[in-house]
Structures are given as structure tokens and as C-alpha cells.
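Data deposition worksheet. Section B asks for the primary sequence of the deposited chain exactly as it was used as input, without tags or linkers unless they were present during the calculation. Section C holds the resulting structure in C-alpha cell form. Section D is free text for depositor observations; keep each observation to a single sentence. Incomplete worksheets are returned to the depositor.
Section A, Depositor: J.P.
Section B:
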Amino acid sequence: LVCRLALEFSDENLFKVLNDRLMYRSSTQVPELPSPAAFQWFLASLIEGLMALHQRNMVHGYLMPVNVLVYNKTSKQPLYKLLDVALVSRYKK
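Section C:
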């Protein structure tokens, strides 16, 4: 029995992005907060991923910042992807 797993690579995850932002904010006088539009984009992306799992009768079960990959973090609308497939499990209706 052979089991192979392929995952996307990203240098950034939400934990690292938040930590970098916190370090930047502590070194400046003016706090840099994300705009409401940026937060809405993040939340919509996360909900879209969770809905895709839900449509397949699956739940993630372990959402945390290190399980959210971030691509193009400097763009107006970065790409967020859920990770940690090992903890994705089927649930019974």
C-alpha cells in the first residue's frame, strides 16, 4: 500500500503574516490596521473554503492561523487557502 500526498508550497501563512504585522506595528508610532475591505475579503475567502468542504460533507476541524496559506500578501486581494488535510474528517448527517 503506497500513500502519496502533494501539498502546495507557500512561504507565508496567516500566523507569519500576523506576526510580521505585529512586529512592524510595535516599531512604529502609527498602527497599521487592515482595511474593512481587506478583512471582508479574508473572511469571504475562508468561508468559501469551508463551504467547499461542507458541500462534500466534510469539516476541517482545526482552524488556526498556521493552517491558512497566504499567496500574494501585498496585493489588494491576496489568495488564502486552507491547509492541514490530515485533520479533515467526514461527519455523519
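Section D:
Strands lie at 12-13, 58-59, 68-71, 79-82, 89-90.
Helices lie at 14-26, 36-55.
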